[in-house]
Amino acid sequence: MKPSLLYQSLKFARFAVFSLALGAGTSALAQKPAAANSQPKILLAINEGGAANADATETILRFQELSRVVEKTLRLPVTIVAVRDRNSLLTALQRQAYALLLARPNDVPAQAIRDFGYQPVVTEKVPSQALFIVRKDSPLKSIADVKGKSIVTPDQYSNVWRAANAMLRDNQIAMSNEKVRAMRDQAAIGWSMENGFFDVAVVNSVSATGRTWEKNGGRVIARSAEMPNMPLIASPELSAAQVAKLRAALVALDSSENGKAMLKKIGLTGFKETSPQVFLDLLKWMGELEVAKQ
User: Fold this and answer.
1) Bridge partner residues of 131 (DSSP)
2) Which residue, 29, 203, 220, 291, could crosslink 210 as a Cys pair with Cβ 3.0–4.6 Å?
């Protein structure tokens, strides 16, 4: 081989080895600190449920101030991860990939608490409920009248769908036997009801449609029991002392004007303490999902 070709080959080989090492190092840094004096990053996952229309960048920017509260409290750098897919989120929680999760679908953190070792930190002060809504002129008076009628719900197997399924079950009505259509966007559900496409709809009480339906002249014929709304949960990666410190900081947010402004930006009124039993009771009432149908 000519000297110039040999030189070029050796130069390429050194570059390839360096590139592989750099790639391996970058991957490892995402999991562990590069040195003993480096601080591990806290991954904060955000899931706003099926009704969220924001892309990942918007979500990260909107929750940036909250992440700084967590950073200041725990004295650890925080990275926000926006996660929309329910199944991907559950898979990640099973391997405890996220130190913290703030999620609107309350059954996902509930399962993480029951099955994956997570612990509740706080929930939004205002609880959520599944509402069965009808138009003002509807002849339907109660949930018992829903049988045989056309129903529109949020996504099948979503937390509000599961709550509605449990409510019907408690009233001896099988959701699977009814004429049900699912829509991702609860604003679209409200519009469909306003225009008479369905007899009855199911919405989350904290959604825009749920909050304004009665104010705009519609009726609510059934409400679920109060459920945890937008809970924040922590993995075993955080100690009991860290969780307690974070809980105190978040509960105190609505006691200052800056805290209230931050909460308003992310659509919350304030945080309150909660317990694991609240989530265990929720899952017990909702019932297990039938895996074969998913």
Assistant:
1) 203, 223
2) 203
